[in-house]
Amino acid sequence: MLVMRRRQGEAILIGDGVEIRILSIDGTRVKMGILAPRSVPVTAREIELVRKENLQAAETPNDASETMARLLKALPNGATPKTGEKIPEVADLGEKKDQIL
Amino acid sequence: MAKCRTKSHGEIEYSEDVVMRFSEGLFGFESETGFLPIEVPALHPLLFLQSVQREGLCFTTLPILVIDPDYRLNLSSADLELAGLSTDRQPVIGEDVLCLAILTLHKDGPTTANLIAPLVINLRTREAVQALILDSEYSHQHVFPATEPEAICS
To answer: Do A85 and B94 touch (CB under 8 A)?
Structure first.
């Protein structure tokens, strides 16, 4: 990894069209200004991590009941949470309610 | 009553006021704005979130306090506004909002929960947002302890 020291107001250039400027520094937080062509996507790293995680989560089967049951047993509070958190209304599964997935 | 075909629960009927409205969708699923919560008593407290628009899309979630009873929400004002919440204070989980973590079952690996991007649902209006909790010690792949069968038996 290339490491550069910059002060407030200074900038770095990446390639032809990208400029990153240090706008302000406040304790551990740094505010940066980024100039880039529209064709270059700029996102916080966390957003990309979460996007990928969502895509993978969408592939998680919902019918893996054995795995799920095992998972629930392993929860710190057991299967009954003490959070008191109520789900107000859910979709009615009707007669499917008692079927294991 | 509207009808919806689901990924794993066949066709179900629901009333519109049950639908959670994510006006900006979820990261990677920006056009999926309506999700239906489905509870299966045998798998309580898991909650399945079925996309109203896409049959094949259903997330498996857990209330975040089940995973971490000390979880602290620190929502940005943008996320608070998207969920129709007051920007004056942080919402209380269980009173103001339902807060869910999306689970990922890794093939041949552990099950993980995404704690940096919880789903926050306004309990009064059902407006919802996938928040992004930056500057925190939480992980997008929080590993559940002792999910392996050996660990439970021993």
So the answer is: yes
Pairing of strands B119-122, B58-63: unpaired
Number of structural domains found in chain A: 1
What's this model's pTM, rounded to 2 decimal places?
Answer: 0.80
Please name the fold of domain B2-153: BH3618-like (2.30.290)
Looking at residue A73, its pLDDT comes to 74
d(CA B116, CA B142): 9
Q: Which residues of B touch A95 (CB under 8 A)?
A: none
- pLDDT tens column, B34-56: 999 988 887 888 899 999 999 99
Q: Which of A56, A86, A98 to mutate to test the interface with B (most CBs of B within 10 A)?
A: A56
User: Which tens digit of pLDDT belongs to each residue from A10-24?
Assistant: 999 999 899 999 999
ipTM over 0.85: yes
Q: How many CA atoms lie within 13 A of B22 on its CB side?
A: 25
Q: How far apart are the first and last CA of chain B?
A: 49
- Residue A14's contacts (CB-CB under 8 Å, 6 or more residues apart) are A20
**B104–chain A Cβ distance below 8 A for any pair:** yes
